[in-house]
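Shift notes (night). Ran polyribonucleotide nucleotidyltransferase while the centrifuge was going.
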Amino acid sequence: MPPPLFFLIVVATLSCHSPWSRYGHVQAFLSPHPRSRGTPEFRAVERRTPDASPLSLSAHTLSTSTSGGPTGTFFTEEKMEVEVGGKILAFETGKIGRSADGSVTVRQGETVVYASACAENKPQELDFTPLRIDYFERFSAAGMTSGSYTKRDGRASDREILVARLIDRPLRPMLTEAWTCETQVLSWVFSYDGVHNSEPMAICAASAAVVLSSIPLETPVAGVQVGRVDGRLVVNPTKQEMANSTLNLMVAGTEEGILMIEGAAEFLPEEVLLDALREGHAAIADICRALREWGAKVGKPKRLGDLCLAPPELKPLLQERYAKAIDAALKSGNRNAYSASLHGIEDSIVASLGVDSGLPDGEFLARDLKVEFKKLVKQRMALMVAAGRGRADGRGPSEVRPISIEMGVLPTPHGSVLFTRGETQALVTVTLGNKGMSQRTESLDGSDSKRFYLQYSFPPSSVGEVGRVGAPGRREIGHGNLAERALLPVIPSEEDFPYALRVESMIMESCGSSSMASACGGSLALMDCGVPLKRHIAGVAMGLLLDEAVDEPIVLTDILGLEDAFGTMDFKICGDAEGVTTFQLDIKCNGLTFPTLEKALRQAKEGRLHILKIMEEACPAPRAEMRGNVMRISQVKINPSFIGKLIGPQGRQIRAIIDQFSLSELDVSDQGVVSVCSFSTESNQAAAKFIEDMYKDEVKASNTVEFKGPMPEVGTVFRDVEIKGIQSFGVFVEILPGLQGLVHVSELNNKRVVSVEALYKSGDRVDVKLLGINEKGQLRLSRKAILEEEGAAGDIKKGGGPARAPARGGEGGGSGGSGGGEGGGRGGGRPPRAKSMPPDVPESEEKAAVRAP
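Came back to this:
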């Protein structure tokens, strides 16, 4: 055995059995040299002991350990921990996914996220970084199995696509544009505890995988979630805390600035949002600092030789020859005009200076020419606005484009609007339906449904192009989710408006801010439909011109597509006059400072108020009455214990009501809410009144005051209590005001009961005994226990009519034989008389109601 391997085994064995391995102040670990892929060298790394002071937000620990695998191989594990929001975020590499260029496992609580980073060996002739990021949630992580036929995790869900975009947006700007090797970052959730959110962990894991790989990254990136619970800002809150939070903010950045913002709130003031961003960035800086130190210790050498850097003489050459032509193109008019002009200039540059041109000056790669051309357009656009010459369409930095609103533009949709802002146009429609129209989702948190959702479509014709049409792409899913979050706070509750709502936004023309046009159009279309919104929601996209040739950053309101493509920032903000409801920030620089963010938020509010004023003039209030083709839904509340009786055997009762009143559907929830659906208001009212009259006792029972007194003792007998509900499995009785319990069919009689409905009806009265109370406070009652204790079969009911006198031989059995049924007789005497049954039970059913076992 070679000496190094032998020494490795000895050290690992001593580390496992030495008492200092747990309590020692300094422990020896094995770790590779930061720049070596060969034989590891041995170094001592200080490790924090259990009695050391607790970690601060800026503190982190680094450690290395070596362990034996199942086949005798060894893993060199590198670990790092950092405290975030009072909880430990643990990073680990060297054990899982060792073939990847970089791989990291991140753990918080019992949630585990894994990420890998790989890149092709050769650069491509591209003027952008070919980066692909995917995120997957394995159902096995939560101890679940996919509901699909094959039981295999299928294509990416909308949530997985949205999280992948969260990872992509802060990571992409930190990969220098000179890196053109195809790069892929993959993330999986391997374990999910239902407590710790995987989204910020996935951002950190992906960043750590790239930091440790050979892929050049300008600086580490990290992400955290910020919530606001009871007015207090919480970093990386638990799922339970987020359920009570008025803010859901995902923020990512570097040690120096903010790179990405995504979130939603309930009319949050801009000042509070800035405070949340500062709180989140403080935690981000700590994580990034720890990742930078960890990468220097265990990361691989970066592939700087594969960077495609443009020759330094190219920039001044382009500026000298083409600056004036670019200035003229930027002021040439509408989108089609300046797009055609700029594309013409770019083609001319490649044709005259490219290596394939065959001309004397043709010494530059087409890729370098395109990259430097984009930089020059960005610079000339910033200088043009800074000099006061206006933007490409002539507006000033804080002006909003002209807005046109046409309500009810389509005849048959339930609600529609054509919203046009400059050269961006959205045709938005609304469809209302019953509960069955809700959108069903499946995630690690289980199955769920949404009664309100917005779907966004961006056909290639909206930008005058030919392209693929079909299933929505990542961008469409992201834009639809953003506009949906903007409108969600003003959607009425299901109790106030018992409809499912589907909003569709079709982009007919696009020149920037199409998602914000969808949010504005969605608000207007909902009001055109008659949805009782309390207020309008408007959105505006903010841009930024940032160049070394300009002294101060220039914030732009309501950006054009040109300003989105060549600008530095795309900051979308939605809300009303009181505050914001959703926000999304993407940038193309190394981070934004808080003064710039504050200026953008302040300028966005001014633009939002301007748009709201125009929207309120076009549609001051919701439509008073919904269109005739909208399904009418009325709701009736009944006691949940009577749901079975409303449905009837094999659904006969509910089908009869549907047929009698020509209803479209009759839906009953587990809480006893009956939704009556039809296209006739008169039919709805008649059916609702029929159900109320049929179950008025149950409706009253469902509205009784909740029982608040002390629970009765087990063994207590309650005499002459009223039956409140009938089910095939038993009856519900009210033993005290507001306190009900179940008498199971097996506890109704000392003989087998075949049909509960044949023996009892609502309002009958019986004697019961309390047998037990479970952990949920549910009562277990019995009538059979009283009969057995008293040695009698007893009356079938009390209070629903006069109880009959006992049959000869006494109540319940006689002097021989089987001892009768209900009422009994001597020696299994004659069967009970028909009058012992409830009045509505035919005599032919009496014998079948109670049978001896």
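Residues 1-58, 793-853 have pLDDT under 50 and may be disordered. The longest helix spans residues 270-298.
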